[in-house]
Amino acid sequence: MHKWLALVVLAALPPAVVGQESWTSPDSATMARARALLRTVPLIDTHNDLPYSLFERFGGDLSKVDLRRSEPKLAADIPRLRAGMVGAQFWSAYPSFDSLKTGGALRQALRAIDVVHQVVRQYPEFGWASTADDIERLFKEGKIGSMIGLEGGEGIDNTLAALRLFHTLGVRYMTLTHFGTLDWADAATDHPRHHGLTEFGEEVVRELNRVGIFVDISHVSAETMRDAIRVSQAPVIFSHSGARAINSHVRNVPDDVLVSLKKNGGVVMVNFIANYVPRTAPAWLARRDSVAEALRAELNDGAEIARRQAEWERRNPHPRGTVADVADHIDHIKKVAGIDHVGIGSDFYQEDFTAMSIGLEDASKYPNLFGELLRRGYTDLEVQKVAGLNLLRAMREMERVAARLQQTPRTDD
Questions:
Q1: Most buried among 79, 112, 351, 384, by the most CB within 10 A?
Q2: What's residue 319's pLDDT?
Q3: Which among 151, 157, 227, 382 is annotated as catalytic?
Q4: Catalytic: 240?
Q5: What local confidence, expressed as pLDDT, does residue 13 receive?
Q6: Fold (CATH) for 28-277+320-405
């Protein structure tokens, strides 16, 4: 593309999203009420990437870090979890999609799971939770119940035997895909190959039901969402997603799926990441990508492309959204699926707090969201449901389904 044509493309793009985003905390009485409610039920967050953070910064060597001290460059530490009043946490075990090419997906999953085990053993502030009852018991003991979410079905390396072993290691949900489409399931952010789940993908869902692991359909395509809900006998979850009617990113949940989720008994755990929260983020992302494409067409100098892209982003700041935008997602899910089908899945994952919505920058900030819900007129019980009661109810039903299915032995290994 000639330089003049690149400039024409840039000029033709829609106006960038500009403006200062801000959020004002509710009054002190409302915030005190929010904190009081979080002392009555466990606040359960279904997605935090601390294990990945520990690998990124310390190579998984826990002797190099003390989680009892402030570690602002990690996705969580004990002081922030305590300030945020977290009662239970699903820690994300993430095998990279690229590990499929090297045959290392199963190894990466085991490595991440091992880090969680090390953390729980090392710090008495944490306790191992295998069941919903364990979560409530540990909450009463003043400990943070810990479970594992396997973020990406690539981690089972196409074998149900690995899935069963993961259950014994503490995995209590598995995200069917991450960003890439697998041999047996389409991802939201990749080219569809199967129009949802393959026959083996449906078998994965059935086996998750049988062993007692939540089917997690964050990251998957809408067709995969629909297939998983159709096949699953137990409630499914979205461990870190939002409402597509509020933010149109393909990672978020369409309304027809929310309706099906209500019938299934599942829960959408709402995330705080800027890309998926404010209404304006998808348009900003599209514009940023168009600018990058035009710069690549104009220039052959990678450093200059990066400089200009950074300058454009400085002039056109990324819309992060605020606590109020996250509450908008909860409002919408409540409206379409019902108050029994929404919870919290923050997706804290990196040291750059600007990746998260304003007012929910780190694990100390959860009370802000519940204060916002109270300000909007949510009842005490509704706040308690969003905080943890909904996930506990779905987990108990998932456990009941597993107990029933296990009465019939498998015959097809």
A1: 112
A2: 95
A3: 151
A4: yes
A5: 36
A6: TIM Barrel (3.20.20)
- The single residue of 45, 49, 77, 227 carrying the catalytic annotation is 49
Could you tell me the residue ranges of all domains in the chain?
28-277+320-405, 281-318
Catalytic residue among 154, 207, 216, 240: 240
Which two tokens mark 71? Answer: 């570690």
CB 269 within 8 A of CB 214: no
Asked if 62 and 16 count as a contact pair (C-beta separation under 8 A), the reply is no
- The closest alpha carbon to 214, from 114, 117, 100, 90, belongs to 90
Q: Which parts of the chain register pLDDT below 50? A: 1-19
Active site residue 151: yes
Q: What single DSSP character describes residue 201?
A: H
CA distances from 327 to 7, 13, 261, 332 (A): 39, 30, 19, 9
For residue 134, give both structure tokens. Answer: 């364990």
Helix (H, G, I), strand (E, B) or coil at 301: coil
Q: Quick: pLDDT tens for 82-125.
A: 999 999 999 999 997 777 677 789 999 999 999 999 999 999 99
Q: For residues 43 and 388, is the Cβ–Cβ distance under 8 A?
A: yes
Strands 171-175 and 342-344: unpaired
Q: Are 152 and 98 in contact (CB under 8 A)?
A: no
Could you please report the per-residue DSSP string of 264-280?
HT-EEEE--BGGGSSTT
